[in-house]
From TrEMBL:
Coiled coil: none annotated. Residues 458-515 form the PucR C-terminal helix-turn-helix domain. InterPro entries: CdaR-like_regulators, PucR_C-HTH_dom, PucR_C-HTH_sf, PucR_dom. Gene3D superfamilies: PucR C-terminal helix-turn-helix domain. This is PucR family transcriptional regulator. It comes from Arthrobacter hankyongi. It comes from the Bacteria. It holds the Pfam family PucR. Residues 16-129 form the Purine catabolism PurC-like domain.
Length: 535
């Protein structure tokens, strides 16, 4: 076809769609007479400004990986292409998607924007050569540069650690520094010699859109969200022109690639968690000793060394509430980062199973750091250390016992380690009370002090007396009573329980029956053992 300008030949959209070698199929058909000025591949988020009017954009849909249901993303792309005068969008199927995402189809139909598919066996360069070699007008320098930058960054996707490789390539491309921060300011990955802490200070204090200066460095940054967590991405260079000219496209492209990496990592993590749950379930059901070595080998990918010491763990949300949504991902991330062996399966999906999880974890030097993540978030009980995988079912029974103690400790706030209980550190009384198997046993203890509970003042005096190590003077001082009054009340209590408070058996019975109240008294003590503020 001869363009309206008179002499430059252009293909039409109809001619391209009809070419057998291109294997193009219409999803939203365009005007077959529309002149096409060129064809180029792009995976950047806002490609419109890089295309000359009348061009065809080719894409594999990388920007939609993990965001195929994002109608806004599809609408933004179509609006950008339409605003730039792009003639049509060609979507390569069989790379990231077997068919065009429905949100993109809907956006093209709503905007009457031409959309075609390119068969998986047809490389994009075939389409580009078919179109571009048919016209004599020069390619846009800016467009070619953007495509080159995109392809260079895309190569990082095949690296063993794609996030690190991507940030490294980003820094090399801007001939300076690239850094990815968490919202807290922690550096996730960085490259180059730029002042990463000074950059963060400017970003944190609201450096505006566009480029800004940090000493001799020109910087550009943007926020992004990956799997619900906030991050900041920044590039910096001593060559201000590089940042001002390339900063936006580099940040935009890197943001989309990080989204794709995050989606891929999420898929890998989901697969690993599924395998871990299957392995944990088999251990909980019990395995014969003859298969122990095989199971140790299956546990290697989860950072367990054969025949090392383990603990079973049972965790629950506070007050039987669901676990905080971010807790389990933090636990898994910490384990992966620190090398802690961990098999974990969430529970709480039925009325009989309280919200929480069960786990097998390595008894290692980094376990304490992992347990710190529970503070104020959940309670957890751990079995005694063990090394025989066949003993896992018994270890989980121990962990359940410890979890019961942890729940009561978390509820009362008793002690610095409240809510985190290792069974091997539990005193015999707490252990015995936690192993009560029936309401009948609990009722037996309750009936022993039933007469005391009918007199709140008397009960309070006995509890305080036991909490004060059976010291009458300290008990009287803390209750603002005369010592003789305390002695009178204690004698009255002896009559009700049928024994003297100087007898070991009576004291043991009272301690068992009133253990939670006594523990709460200990937890409420202030310096000098003055706890009268409670009353």
């Amino acid at each position: 076809m001869i363009d309206a300008r008179g002499s430059v030949p252009f293909l039409t959209l109809g001619e391209i769609a009809a070419a057998p070698s291109l294997k193009v199929a219409a999803v939203v058909a365009g005007d077959p007479a529309r002149s096409i000025t060129g064809a180029h591949t792009s995976e950047i988020h806002d490609p419109g400004r890089w295309f000359e009017p009348g061009s065809i954009m080719l894409t594999t849909g990388l920007r939609f990986v993990g965001a195929e249901d994002d109608a806004g993303l599809a609408q933004h792309l179509v609006a950008s292409l339409r605003g730039a005068g792009v003639a049509a969008l060609f979507f390569g199927v069989g790379v990231y998607f077997d068919r065009v995402p429905v949100t993109l189809v809907a956006a093209c139909r709503a905007g009457a924007f031409p959309l075609y598919t390119v068969a998986a066996e047809v490389p994009f360069y075939v389409v580009e050569n078919f179109v571009n070699q048919s016209k004599v007008s020069p390619d846009s320098y800016q467009l070619k540069r953007a495509m080159r930058l995109t392809n260079d960054l895309l190569e990082a996707m095949s690296h063993e650690d794609p996030t690190r490789a991507l940030i490294s390539r980003l820094g090399a491309t801007c001939r300076g520094t690239a850094v990815l921060y968490e919202e807290s300011g922690r550096v996730v990955e960085s490259t180059g010699e730029g002042p990463v802490h000074l950059i963060w200070n400017e970003v944190q204090h609201g450096a505006g859109a566009g480029a800004f200066d940090v000493g001799r460095w020109k910087v550009m940054a943007r926020p992004l969200v990956l799997r619900g967590n906030g991050y900041r991405l920044a590039v910096a260079s001593r060559n201000a022109g590089v940042v001002e000219d390339l900063g936006e496209v580099l940040l935009e492209t890197t943001q989309r690639l990080l989204g794709a990496i995050s989606g891929i990592n999420q898929l890998a993590m989901s697969r690993e968690r599924h395998e871990g749950i299957q392995l944990l379930t088999a251990l909980q059901d019990g395995i014969p000793g003859s298969r122990e070595l095989r199971f140790w080998e299956r546990m290697r990918p989860f950072r367990f060394e054969p025949y090392t010491r383990l603990r079973a763990a049972v965790a629950q949300g506070l007050d039987n509430a669901p676990l905080p949504p971010a807790l389990v991902p933090r636990l898994l991330e910490y384990a992966g980062r620190s090398g802690l062996g961990l098999l974990l399966a969430e529970s709480g999906r039925t009325p009989e199973s309280p919200p929480g999880f069960q786990a097998v974890v390595s008894e290692s030097a980094v376990l304490d750091g992992w347990l710190q993540l529970f503070r104020g978030e959940a309670s957890i009980g751990l079995s005694e250390p063990y090394g025989d995988l066949a003993a896992t079912p018994e270890a989980f029974r121990e962990a359940e016992t410890a979890a019961g103690i942890a729940r009561r400790a978390a509820a009362s706030g008793a002690g610095r380690e409240a809510g985190i209980v290792r069974l091997d550190e539990v005193d015999p009384v707490s252990w015995l009370l936690a192993r009560r198997d029936s309401p009948r046993e609990a009722d037996k203890l309750a009936r022993y002090v039933d007469a005391l509970r009918r007199d709140p003042g008397l009960l309070r005096t006995v509890v305080r007396y036991l909490a004060m190590d059976m010291d009458v003077a300290r008990t009287a001082e803390s209750l603002f009573l005369h010592g003789n009054t305390v002695r009178y009340r204690l004698r009255k209590a002896e009559e009700l329980v049928g024994g003297r408070l100087s007898e070991a058996a009576v004291v043991a019975n009272l301690y068992l029956a009133l253990q939670e109240e006594i523990a709460a008294e200990h937890a409420a003590r202030v310096p000098g053992d003055r706890i009268d503020k409670i009353f």
